[in-house]
């Protein structure tokens, strides 16, 4: 075996010398070319799908990260809302005549409530505080009862039992209200 024979690949019948005149006349070349184009298109399609899938995964994980950052503390916030309610009820339950003797305790509870509201606001939690006479909004209010009340129109808030809260753009808890059923 000489050096030239060693450099040649062993029996490659599939390889076509495109410079030879026979290659251009080979009837299988068009078929082989079409096969290679189809294979190329298949790989390109798979590549584009994998690229799109990777981009979708990146976007999905970014959205999930943002949502976890914004709404991750919603369970803790929801669990703290009764604490806020109880502190408000405690202040409202103190009779007017004993307010002066319990002034320090009342100030402490009010200070704690203001601090709790400040922490809520810092984390995107905003109170929903409807007023008597406001229109009932089922997106932000929960009707605890309906009652006819003279001088009101149907759908007006006649009592506020508890404030509601929003966490950014999501309802954390609806405001609990009583609604007038007086016919208009």
Automatic annotation (TrEMBL):
A single MF term (Gene Ontology): protein-folding chaperone binding
Gene3D superfamilies found in the cross-reference section: 3.90.20.20, Head domain of nucleotide exchange factor GrpE
Chief place where the protein resides: cytoplasm
UniProt keyword terms in alphabetical order: Chaperone, Cytoplasm, Stress response
Places the protein is found: Cytoplasm
Domain of life: Bacteria
Region annotation (Disordered) ranges: 1-28, 53-72
Compositional bias segments (type: Acidic residues): 12-28
GO biological process, one term: protein folding
GO CC, any one term: cytoplasm
Pfam short name (any one): GrpE
Residue ranges, compositional bias (Basic and acidic residues): 1-11, 55-69
Biological role: Participates actively in the response to hyperosmotic and heat shock by preventing the aggregation of stress-denatured proteins, in association with DnaK and GrpE. It is the nucleotide exchange factor for DnaK and may function as a thermosensor. Unfolded proteins bind initially to DnaJ; upon interaction with the DnaJ-bound protein, DnaK hydrolyzes its bound ATP, resulting in the formation of a stable complex. GrpE releases ADP from DnaK; ATP binding to DnaK triggers the release of the substrate protein, thus completing the reaction cycle.
Family indicated by similarity: Belongs to the GrpE family.
Subunit structure: Homodimer.
Protein name as catalogued: Protein GrpE
Species name: Boseongicola aestuarii
